[in-house]
Amino acid sequence: WTFSAYRLAIALFALIQGLSSNGKVYWLREPRAGGWIYGPYVNHNHYAGLMEMLCPIPLVIALSGHVHGYWKLLPGFAFVIMASTIFLSGSRGGMLAFLVQMVVLGILIGMQKSRQTALRVGAVLVVIAALMLWVGGEGLVSRVASIQAEAKTELEGGLRLTVDRDGIKMFAHKPIFGWGLRVFPVAYPQFRSFFTDKIVNEAHNDYLQMLVEMGSLGFLTTVWFLAVVYRRGTRKLTVWAWDLNGAVGMATLLGISGILVHSFVDFNLQIPANAALFYVLCATAAADTRFGANRRMRRKRTPSPDLELSSVPTQTSSTT
Fold it and tell me: Where are the domains of the chain?
């Protein structure tokens, strides 16, 4: 409950700041390089990345059988606020990542054939949509509508796609070991195919930047790491609705999946706070089961041999 309250506090703060922002971090400090501030982040996309990883946790708790009645309201309310701020932050990559998370969740619920759970998720999404429209208004609608136009522009030769092509050329020069971690902004200018007086500090594609900086060896090692995480985490999914280990695995894998989708169009994993949380989720998803309460509840209570033997002397002594 403490963790849910903490996440809810961050989302509420971001919501309040978004409605009353004066362009300064915490209403006090103006960023030196500008930026689209949302919550405690200078870049609104990175706030969305944080919420993508966190918001599945209260949702899975509310849907599982570990809380009942009114106790479902706190995690449910936390999820509504957290998910709403992803859209209200204006992060289009965050919006797409969240939708992918909900599609994956829908598939998992469909595999369980739980109509009640599906109705609950649908009701929560309706509440989120109503809150977003009420708070975001026309600005949010126009931001969502711009996703298609932005995608078309990028496919026709936008800046991100140009940087991607330049990055592939960088990888071709050092394909095995790469250029070294955090070297991308230093090495990129000699491969840049367009003019700008600004510094391109990131590739805005974590996969490409990893390939450039770590080479094929580092990239394949990362793919192996993620494969292990998903292989170990998916073993718990069949029991997520009633087993705490399964619920934790479900929530963490949804959070990991969200940030991995967002990483195709941004550099969330270059931000230390988000990267640290990402690895915490990976470790939690891949960890062995730790919570045995449910197993103890299902285990039949058998009388202790010591207790059975303790009754024998009493009967024997009375007979004597």
Answer: 1-142
